[in-house]
Design a protein that fits this description.
Length: 326
């Protein structure tokens, strides 16, 4: 026998409907049941919020846009990464085709004209030589020294100068830029959704070079087509079993995002949980046809520097690097 009053019946029905409505209202939520990592998953193309950061006046360049993609909880993520390109001082170009800066070697570069950024007035004056696929922002002891003058392509290289006392901390944000915002891909090698690759190499006049002693943590991985291929071990955000093949149907790719710590570039930031950088060969990065690199190779591999990135130089698109110079 049902002892409920008509009012109680109505209330329980209303409650039942409200409970049903919860899954209905998030019916478009991303199915992340295959994912067990610490990141946040988004799926599909981002909304373009900045159409293009860079126009090449003298040649061709890929469109370097910025997008925003929203996760299931309504949080917006900037892709390929938040950056200071619009406002920060651009690094002086060693080589940059769009600006007609095309010296054939370091001997042709007027290094004395490079502006000096003073971090410590009593410090040592240090020159840095940098090549990034595709974009870097360089901090010394938390001070932003300069950002890459070309966010995506063509491939360029840069020279910076700063004054600092040892020990000091180098912190670099590197971005492998993307055409298909939020999808980690570009039209390349005959595919509409080809995952591009990254890579970063630098040497400094005090003998500091990029190598496996640097720390590298990944904050954005895409494209991912099967969330099950992702795993994490000892702080490493691994995607080594995920495909790196291009496709013509990549519009539904997943991306994994991790919040970057607000003070990651500060000297006092504790990066001890970050993995060590992974090393890549010049052949893996594919630099032998890039004059921005080859014309200054004596300042890169010739100076003992190695290409570094996180564990996946193809799928990881925003990587933070740190190194303490003793
Ligand atoms: Ca660049
Ligand atoms: Ca990539
Ligand atoms: Ca790239």
């Amino acid at each position: 026998m049902n002892t409920k009053s008509p009012l109680a019946m109505t209330l329980s029905s209303a409650f039942f409907i409200a409970t049903l409505a919860i899954p209905l209202s998030v019916a478009s939520a991303i199915d992340t049941s295959n994912y067990s990592g610490s990141g946040t998953i988004t799926q599909g193309l981002a909304k373009t919020i900045e159409a293009n950061l860079f126009e090449c006046k003298n040649g061709r360049s890929r469109v370097a846009g910025i997008g925003e993609v929203t996760d299931s909880a309504g949080k917006k993520w900037t892709v390929p990464a938040s950056n200071n390109y619009a406002t920060a001082a651009k690094a002086v170009d060693l080589y940059e085709e769009c600006a007609n800066v095309t010296p054939s070697s370091i001997a042709e570069v007027d290094q004395d004209s490079v502006p000096l950024v003073v971090v410590d007035p009593e410090g040592e004056e240090i020159t840095g030589y940098i090549f990034a696929d595709n974009y870097f922002e360089l901090y010394i002891n938390g001070t932003l020294i300069a950002v890459d003058s070309v966010p995506f392509t063509p491939f360029n290289s840069s020279i910076v100068k700063f004054k600092v006392s040892k020990p000091y901390t180098i912190a670099v944000k590197v971005i492998d830029w993307e055409e298909n915002l939020g999808l980690g891909s570009e039209n390349n090698r005959g595919k509409d959704f080809h995952p591009g690759d990254g890579g970063f190499i630098a040497s400094f006049s005090d003998g500091t070079v990029t190598n496996a002693d640097w720390l590298a943590q990944n904050y954005y991985t895409s494209p991912i087509y099967d969330l099950n291929c992702l795993h994490e071990v000892a702080g490493k955000r691994l995607s080594d079993s995920c495909t790196t093949q291009g496709t013509d149907n990549g519009q539904d790719a997943y991306a994994v995002h991790w919040e970057t710590p607000g003070n990651w570039m500060a000297q006092a930031f504790d990066a001890s949980a970050w993995p060590q950088a992974s090393i890549y060969s010049e052949a893996e990065i594919g630099v032998n046809n890039k004059k921005a690199y080859m014309n200054f190779i004596d300042k890169f591999s010739g100076a003992g520097a190695s290409f570094i990135w996180s564990t996946n130089v193809v799928l990881d698109n925003q990587v933070l690097l740190r190194y303490e110079v003793k």
